[in-house]
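[09:14] KT: can someone run the structure on this one? pasting the chain below
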Amino acid sequence: MMSLPLGRVGQSLGKLHGWLATVKQPDGYAGPVAHWWRNSLLYTGPAIDWRYEGILDGYGTLFRKTGDERWLFCVQGGITHVLRAQRQGGGYGVSSFERNPESLGTPHEAAATLGLLHVVDLLEDGTEVMEAARRNLQYLVDALWDPSSKGFNDRPGVLGRVPNKLATLAEALMMYSRLSRDETFLPYALSALQDVARYVVTSGPITGAVHQYAPGAREGDGRFFPFYAARCVPALVQGASVFGRQEFSDTAVGITSFLVRSRGEDGSWPQIIYSNGRRAEDPRWIAGAADILNALRVARYEGDDWTASLQRLLDSQLPSGGFPTAEGFRNLRRFPLGPMSRRAVTEVPDWLDILPVVGWNDKVFRLLANLLPEAEAIPEMALGHTDIPVRFNGLTARYQEDAETISVTSGARELYRWRKGSAWAQTGFRVPSL
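[09:31] RB: done, structure tokens below
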């Protein structure tokens, strides 16, 4: 599917593994979150959200490929983080990514459980992990299943469907059923996949696009995010096999075709495409684009050279080892934890463009682990110091990162500082209370 830059995948993985070690606290992988929807910039402690999908799957893949015990050690550490965070009712304590430190995050709890299920086969005794997965999935079913509409809502008691979140939940339900040989969850998985397919456009210039949201579980909202469309593909591919439903496979193929058509010449994807064809380009994901490439890998998409997209991703890696979040937050006026609107383009990136986030970098980690050629080594890579001029809420500033700290300063004024062992960041700007 892709032409791989020889030697670069292993080196990039080595640096990214090193960066992940710098943001790992005793109870889990931590750090601020930059997102299109909103940010979690103050809470910087551990979270059990979709970051564990890519971290666990990625480290598990590396161990299977290399037999290197250091990757199994990372798998075991990640499992411990998730199990320790599970509450008595089955949910995880901090699981809402951009809304952290809230809980009952969707699709985040299901994604973390999916991470567990990807690596349970590496354990001598997976009983505890399988029970934790069952309890979490039952918790999600109990909280989100709407018997009147026979489908999963995004929030308890609020009728509405979010296809990409349904896909992640369906994937976890199917994988648990396969591993446990317990078919209790399969009817729920089938319903979720049918809802995903129901909100895929089947004709016209945006055929294969997936509505982001369907309020009232009725018509889709006419917003199509390539990133979230890609998140639907692995579940549909798995569902075609589990349920013997060719239409799920056909839907996955249609989505990949949409992803191919919507890609820009530089290998990036717009944030949103609307039903009238208008595109909102910014911010264009950098680290998150790895999940789009992963969807094409899972779907075994052929017929296109993805070197530009992979090269764009690899070229973006920061000296400190992480991958930046996006390009284009600089084109949006964003107040901390608040709304955003268009403003004039500036050549200096916004600090949120540069900020590496665990829950985006895990997607790069999983993709590169899967793309790593069997014979390619993963060297121990020395991490450098990132120092980049940025814009910070209209101010000229500098973003700096090393193994201990992320900071943003403007002259002598410190605007933001996260000491990587801390659960809260220090800020030099006023923000609304959480």
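[09:33] KT: thanks! The first strand starts at residue 24 and ends at 25.
[09:34] RB: yep, looked fine to me
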